[in-house]
Amino acid sequence: MTAQAEGIIAADFFHLDTVLGKRLCAMAFLEHGTRELHITDVTSRPTRAWTVQQARNVAGELETRMKILRFVLRDRDAKYDASFDAVFRSEDVDVLLSAPRTPRMNAHCERVIGTVRREALDHVLIMNEAHARRVLAEYQDHYNARRPRQSRNQQPPDAIREPTRANDPDSRRLLRTRVLGGANNEYRYAA
Fold first, then answer.
1. Phi and psi dihedrals of 123, rounded to 5?
2. What beta strand segments (E) does 75-173 contain?
3. d(CA 169, CA 133)
4. What are the tens digits of pLDDT across the range 65-110?
5. pLDDT (tens digit per residue) in 10-43
6. For a Cys staple, 127 with which of 53, 69, 119, 131, CB 3.0–4.6 Å?
């Protein structure tokens, strides 16, 4: 199963509401093997053309890593069409469709969207599309570079090596960095 997970990227939409009640839509891609999150963009009108552009953006961002991907997992939303699938098929990535009304088939992506909501969106009042982009970009950076993952032995997706462990935690000072204005905190030992 782990070998198969390395070759899967999942896609899904999620919505967020602004302070003034405007509903925005964002698109998230999650690499199953590394658990790396890619939040592509935010719009108030998600169209098929916009969705295809998000697929192109992710394919361009992944560049050489696209070669190890074998499948893109998506649901049957009408915003996906043959052009979306063609972006991935051109990279020799097969498209897997989840069964109708079965969110558990895309459980990893659904879970990360819940994490984005709980750790970021539930704590920040979104003003507009530009503000939503900044908040989601900051959270994506936190999620990929510093947030530990139980499934990866407490390592974030971008971790290249194990962090240095303190022999005596009492002898080192712990530093806190606030993320999203204090909605989340990152901790590390001072050098």
1. -115, -5
2. 94-97
3. 37
4. 888 899 999 999 999 999 999 999 999 999 999 998 887 888 999 9
5. 999 999 999 999 999 999 999 998 889 999 999 9
6. 131
Q: Which residues contact 73 (CB under 8 A, 6 or more apart)?
A: 8, 9, 10, 11, 96, 98, 105, 106, 109
